[in-house]
Amino acid sequence: MKGKNIDNLINQRELGKYLDILPGFIHNLNTPIMNISGRVELIQYKNPEIKSAQSILSQIDKINHLVDSLRTFVETEKLTEPQQISIDDFLERFFMFLTFNVRFKHNINITKDIEANLNINSIPKYFFNLLYEIFNHSIQNIPNKGNIRIKVLQEDERILFEIIRDGEPFSQEDMTLASTNLDDIIAEETFSSLEVIIFLVNRLKGMFKVSNNSDQMTYLFSIHHMS
Fold first, then answer.
1. Are residues 101 and 189 in the same domain?
2. Per-residue pLDDT tens for 31-48?
């Protein structure tokens, strides 16, 4: 990649902007959550007739899951060496992270068709950012209450990821860009989402293409399988 390395590029993207503040935010949030949880549990123990205590604890659990998803993102950004990744576990944490995007949470319907017990040998930081950039590119071209479907399956020696969305079809420029060799992409000061996707797929030694089919648009990429 000309001009800058992939890490510098990622750090300038939307996700990279949060890396400096998130660790402190998570640390500062944990203490009051633990204090509230402890006090509510004590109230519940001393006053079992107070039924609302369990409801409060359930909401605290939801907050803890959200904090864990933020922590997962921060930790994943530090993982820049190839390792075994469980697709089931990784995608569960990824989709929890997406709930921080209000439009994903309330205006996009996401359905999943994921083959169980699949693993890949990949770089967590780049894989996470690749998924995020694809979904981010999707919401730029999808109407409110639109649909996104992700399908993951093993095909020979590769894991195939198919992400299908409603909305605007890919432009001819996008179609051409998606099929362009990385070496032929001219490095600039800024990059489009699709260019970043191509860089990340290349870094993961994967394959990528996009297609228009009637009223459905598809992002298709694959990465080598790991037993």
1. yes
2. 888 888 888 888 888 888
